[in-house]
Amino acid sequence: MQQVEIADILARHGEKEGGLISILESIQAKYGYLPREALEEVAEKTGHALVDVYGVATFYKAFSLKPRGKHLISVCLGTACHVRGGPQIAKEVKRQLGIRPGETTPDKEFTLETVNCLGACALGPVVVIDGHYFPNVKTSMVKGIIDRARDGLDKVEVDKDARVFPIEVSCARCNHSLMDTEHKLDGYPSVRVTVSFGQKHGWLELSSLYGSYNTSSKYEIPENTIVNFFCPYCNAELMGGSLCSECGAPMVPMIVRGGGMVQICSRKGCKGHMLDLL
Length: 278
Ligand code: FES
Hints:
The structure is a single chain. By secondary structure, this protein is α+β, with helices and mostly antiparallel strands. The chain has three domains: 3-59, no CATH class; 71-151, Glutaredoxin; 165-277, no CATH class. The protein contains seven helices and 15 strands. The chain has helices at residues 3-17, 20-31, 36-46, 50-59, 79-83, 86-97, 139-151; strands at residues 71-76, 110-115, 127-129, 132-134, 165-166, 169-171, 179-185, 188-197, 200-206, 209-210, 215-217, 228-230, 251-256, 260-265, 274-277. Strands 7, 8, 9, 11 and 12 form a five-stranded antiparallel beta sheet that branches. The chain has a four-stranded mixed beta sheet with strand order 2-1-3-4, covered by helices on one side. Strands 6-13-14-15 form a four-stranded antiparallel beta sheet, with no helix packed on it. Helix 1 (3-17) packs antiparallel against helix 2 and helix 2 (20-31) packs antiparallel against helix 3. The chain binds FE2/S2 (inorganic) cluster (FES). Residues 76, 78-81, 117-121, 124, 126 line the site of FE2/S2 (inorganic) cluster.
């Protein structure tokens, strides 16, 4: 672990923009766990007591104090997923990987955990790998999902990818629907917002398929640009208070029809999106 990398993470977050949780999320994203030296440095540099830093690190299940495999597989065994076959999915994942929950494969590729709810009960049984949601999983799909994770989950084939499913969203400020039925992306109504970056201000359409990153916009947005999002109806700024665990940019929350929240990273090209369905 390089001290300079932790200093870099701390500098990116700054005291004003994000709290301890966001800092720990970034460290966890970088190393796959929270090394002891990193927690000590966070405590020293932010002025938090070490015991408080450990308190946060051990309170949230998303954080791990032990090294994890390259990929984290979370199988939901919450009530909704349980009644739809979650235990059979967990059994099949254990069989395929040869490990039990809490363990890591000898090649350090996979760590398995079971969780009580992943916030997407309507889509159960749910498996999440490295933040990618796989809804309505069947035991026959498990091997394919694991193989896909091994090859890398960044590439999405929108027409056949099990992670991709449509959602409808509305503004988190005025609750007006953001769906644009006139302009489709990936064959579904797009999500239309207004954006600004530099001196430019115009519309941006996002694919409403969760897992697809297709967009269309009035102006070409350069990679890595942090874009300001606005509601086209109430004109309110849509940036929320939390920061992307991948890159530290502000997240943009939107309300999901049917209950829940989706948050997308405001940095062009970053895939740090989060879905939390009720
Ligand atoms: S019970 Fe599985 S996502 Fe909620």
